[in-house]
């Protein structure tokens, strides 16, 4: 990490930190004052999105349900598959809470980032102790992508939207497969809501 001068905030984003066992200890030994922002979304949608991304790079991979289940007839979920494992947020948070108190975390809803980007960005700015500069006037909804885009300052270049890998259509997944995954995640989601004091409304 670069040195941070008085009045500066240094940010680094790597999604895999949240699910990497060694990350909390390493970050804590670097700086116990680190503030942690975790963006989460419905773990079922997240798993399908992860699969969609892998599928775009490797069209010959097995079907979603073949990877998600150890045994389809018994409905046994394969938690060794990373697309499924990542969404067990309560388990990962448990690991982090051994090193950082809950007050060092801000949990951002991926769904609300889409439906109310200014609201979620307001929470981020408050958490970081920043003046609220980014507001709803900085966003517009891009119908084609299904995501909000960031407007550039007046006289700036064209608006900044998420890259082409974002907002692509998901493959059709059997309804029973989705339902079984919802049931699998429900107790973990409830525990996560309890741990964070936030109901993300996934159930």
From TrEMBL:
InterPro entries found in the cross-reference section: NST/OST, P-loop_NTPase, Sulfotransferase_dom
Chain coiled-coil ranges: none
EC number(s) stated in the UniProt entry for this protein: 2.8.2.-
Keywords for this protein: Disulfide bond, Glycoprotein, Transferase
Family: Belongs to the sulfotransferase 1 family.
Name listed for the protein in its UniProt record: Sulfotransferase
One GO molecular-function entry: [heparan sulfate]-glucosamine 3-sulfotransferase activity
Source species of the chain: Ficedula albicollis
Sulfotransferase domain residues: 28-186
Signal peptide: none
Lineage: Eukaryota, Metazoa, Chordata, Craniata, Vertebrata
PANTHER family registered for this protein in UniProt: HEPARAN SULFATE GLUCOSAMINE 3-O-SULFOTRANSFERASE 6 (PTHR10605:SF62), HEPARAN SULFATE SULFOTRANSFERASE (PTHR10605)
Bridged cysteine pairs (disulfide): 149-161
A Gene Ontology BP annotation from the UniProt entry: heparan sulfate proteoglycan biosynthetic process
Binding annotation for 3'-phosphoadenylyl sulfate: 41, 49, 166-170
């Amino acid at each position: 990490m670069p040195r941070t001068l008085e009045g500066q905030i240094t940010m680094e984003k790597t999604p895999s930190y949240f699910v990497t066992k060694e990350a909390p200890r390493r970050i804590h030994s670097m700086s116990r004052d680190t503030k942690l922002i975790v963006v989460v979304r419905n773990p079922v949608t997240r798993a399908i999105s992860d699969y969609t991304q892998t599928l775009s790079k490797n069209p010959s991979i097995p079907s979603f349900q073949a990877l998600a289940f150890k045994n389809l007839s018994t409905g046994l979920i394969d938690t060794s598959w990373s697309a499924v494992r990542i969404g067990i947020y309560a388990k990962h948070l448990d690991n982090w809470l051994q090193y950082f108190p809950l007050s060092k975390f801000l949990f951002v809803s991926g769904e609300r980032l889409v439906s109310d980007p200014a609201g979620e960005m307001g929470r981020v700015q408050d958490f970081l102790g920043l003046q609220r500069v980014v507001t709803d006037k900085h966003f517009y909804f891009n119908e084609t992508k299904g995501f909000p885009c960031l407007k550039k300052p007046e006289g700036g270049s064209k608006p900044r939207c998420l890259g082409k890998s974002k907002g692509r259509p998901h493959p059709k997944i059997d309804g029973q497969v989705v339902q079984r995954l919802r049931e699998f995640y429900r107790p973990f989601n409830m525990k996560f809501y309890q741990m964070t004091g936030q109901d993300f409304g996934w159930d």
